[in-house]
Amino acid sequence: KVGWYNAVLQPAFHLPYPDDTLAFVVLSTPSMFDKALKPFVNKERLKIIRDPVDQCVSHHLSRVKEKFPDQKVDVIFDYEILPSRKPKFLAQTAAHVAGAAFYYQRKDVKLDPWGKKKIYGVCIHPKYGGWFAIRGLLLFPDIQVPFLEQSAPVDCVSAEEKRIELLEQFNFHWQDGRYRDIIEVKERYSEEQKAYFATPPAERFRLLGLTQEAQ
């Protein structure tokens, strides 16, 4: 429910819907690369592609909207920002309140070793660890669900030292991706997918076999 999200944030970040409004958080799993992105790129090869992942997600979420012709469905993507430069929604908070992934933050560590350093939080999924992404929100403004019960996310990094290790790796060594394997995972990105996301955006077209003209 939108109210679960708004309850844990300052008013500046609230979503402008009644508390009982139904919302879904959309995640992409490791298999998204082969099952959604590559087929999308092959199909759209002759059209203008600016950001393959964003356009692929947009394509699939617009297809979801088509499945509900009688409903108003609002979509907010993870990359959208307000004129104030604030994000339109805080993806990791949304995933946590929806029970999709646990958002580990500095406040979840009792003996904080970081002093005055800025420490960012990170979501971990019980099945995919850090090998997933939060892509957007689907909101159904006309559907109110007062009796929906909130499910807590799975606390899969419960030990204090593991939480410290996770936040250390994410904040200071995120490039090597070790934080993603803080727990045993059922599935991770393929080598091809890792290479794609490790490549600067402007050079990713070549990896997908897109020419400069298609870009």
From TrEMBL:
<dbReference type="InterPro" id="IPR032037">
    <property type="entry name" value="MMACHC"/>
</dbReference>
<protein>
    <recommendedName>
        <fullName>Cyanocobalamin reductase / alkylcobalamin dealkylase</fullName>
        <ecNumber>1.16.1.6</ecNumber>
        <ecNumber>2.5.1.151</ecNumber>
    </recommendedName>
</protein>
<dbReference type="GO" id="GO:0005737">
    <property type="term" value="C:cytoplasm"/>
</dbReference>
<dbReference type="GO" id="GO:0071949">
    <property type="term" value="F:FAD binding"/>
</dbReference>
<dbReference type="GO" id="GO:0032451">
    <property type="term" value="F:demethylase activity"/>
</dbReference>
<keyword id="KW-0285">Flavoprotein</keyword>
<keyword id="KW-0288">FMN</keyword>
<dbReference type="GO" id="GO:0031419">
    <property type="term" value="F:cobalamin binding"/>
</dbReference>
<keyword id="KW-0170">Cobalt</keyword>
<keyword id="KW-0274">FAD</keyword>
<dbReference type="GO" id="GO:0009235">
    <property type="term" value="P:cobalamin metabolic process"/>
</dbReference>
<dbReference type="GO" id="GO:0033787">
    <property type="term" value="F:cyanocobalamin reductase (cyanide-eliminating) (NADP+) activity"/>
</dbReference>
<keyword id="KW-0521">NADP</keyword>
<keyword id="KW-0846">Cobalamin</keyword>
<dbReference type="Pfam" id="PF16690">
    <property type="entry name" value="MMACHC"/>
</dbReference>
<keyword id="KW-0963">Cytoplasm</keyword>
<comment type="similarity">
    <text>Belongs to the MMACHC family.</text>
</comment>
<keyword id="KW-0560">Oxidoreductase</keyword>
